[in-house]
Write a structure and sequence with these properties.
- The chain is α/β, with parallel strands linked by helices and 342 residues long.
- It is built from twelve helices and eight strands.
- It has helices at residues 15-32, 47-50, 69-80, 92-105, 121-134, 161-188, 223-248, 271-279, 281-284, 288-291, 293-300, 327-341; strands at 60-64, 84-89, 110-115, 140-143, 192-197, 252-258, 311-313, 316-318.
- An eight-stranded mixed sheet has the order 3-2-1-4-5-6-7-8, with helices on both faces.
- The longest helix has 28 residues, at 161-188.
- It holds the Pfam family adh_short.
């Protein structure tokens, strides 16, 4: 299958062209051969398969965006393995329904829902405060929630919506919960794990990577580049966090991942996607069970114990763009994010 490249006349790829790149590359690599990587898993592995035989009893995990898509499947599988899962959800009615459904299927499951809107810094602060007050430990933080390819919109805090939701909300949440994770890791002698759900779209941000001086520039806004900006920010965040945690000698890891092209409501702003799912979808688009696999692999699998500051795809180590490895860009993003959340 032909791999489509962006024409030289365009600065940024369209969503359709990005999907074309992804389809061409991953159709060949994923679905034709289904080769297993060094981990023993492949693109077709499911979240249940990559966690088979793992006992997560005694672990507590927070999953943001847990009411749908891969967040919901991640919650389901972590609960199945015995973890106590806190779902961060915007819609509490949906959260309660999910909790009821999971506990009906898995009577021993421990699942709770707490209100969380990642696009609102006030909501993030309230969630973190309320969680700490519960007294629950925190072993695993899965920064999963996100929006994709939205029209130009500002968050409640007057910050471009994709950056605000996908990166900044998670940046603040992680910082607010980090001391609690340090305490849990110290008292339990169990490794803490922070997981940022990124995307291969991190390869297509604005030219400068992060538009520090034009974050809210409506005139220059491009929905694909803005999404790519937020996704490279997820990787830079995990990498810089790793650097800081290693300096402290804390038993907490931080990694990022690409879940694959997954049939979820994230694509509601991409018209081509609806047609693809009904025609070629079965050949190259992952279902949610496969899409949640890498997240669950990083959360529970002992193969990644001690691994930090890495990027994964298909439950195997993968490579990022050169810009996503830029240490100085990561440091600058960290300071920039700290100033935004003050």
């Amino acid at each position: 299958m032909t791999s489509f490249l962006p024409p030289l006349t365009f600065k940024y790829p369209t969503a359709e062209r990005l999907l074309g790149d992804e389809v061409g590359r991953r159709t060949r690599r994923m679905w034709l051969f289904r080769r297993k990587g060094p981990s023993g898993f492949s693109s077709s592995s499911t979240a249940e398969e990559v966690t088979e035989g793992i006992d997560a009893t005694g672990l507590t995990a927070i999953v943001t965006g847990a009411s749908s898509g891969i967040g919901l499947e991640t919650t389901h599988v972590l609960a199945l393995r015995g973890a106590h899962v806190i779902m961060g959800v915007r819609n509490m009615a949906a959260g309660r329904d999910i909790r009821e459904a999971i506990t009906k299927e898995i009577p021993t499951a421990k699942v709770d829902a707490m209100e969380l809107d990642l696009s609102s810094l006030a909501s993030v602060r309230k969630f973190a405060s309320d969680f700490i007050l519960t007294g629950f430990p925190l072993n695993i933080l899965i920064n999963n929630a996100g929006v994709m390819l939205t029209p130009y919109t500002l968050s409640k805090d007057k910050i471009e919506l994709q950056f605000a939701t996908n990166h900044l909300g998670h940046f603040l949440l992680t910082n607010l919960l980090l001391d609690h994770m340090r305490k849990t890791a110290g008292e339990s002698s169990k490794e803490g794990r922070i997981i940022n759900v990124s995307s291969e779209a991190h390869r297509f941000p604005y030219r400068e990577g992060i538009r520090f001086d034009k974050l809210n520039d409506e005139k220059g806004y491009n929905s694909m580049a803005a999404y790519g900006q937020s996704k490279i920010a997820n990787i830079l965040h995990a990498n810089e966090l790793t650097r800081r945690l290693k300096e402290e000698g804390v038993n907490i890891t931080a990694n990022s991942l690409h879940p694959g092209v997954v049939a979820t409501n994230l694509f509601r702003h991409v018209n081509i996607f609806n047609g693809l799912t009904t025609t070629l979808g079965k050949y190259f688009i992952k279902n949610v069970q496969q899409g949640a696999a890498t997240t669950c692999y990083l959360a529970l699998n002992p193969q990644v114990k001690g691994v930090s500051g890495e990027y994964f795809a298909d439950s195997n180590l993968s490579k990022t763009s050169k810009k996503a490895k830029d240490v100085e860009l990561g440091k600058k993003l960290w300071d920039f994010s700290v100033n935004l959340v003050k």
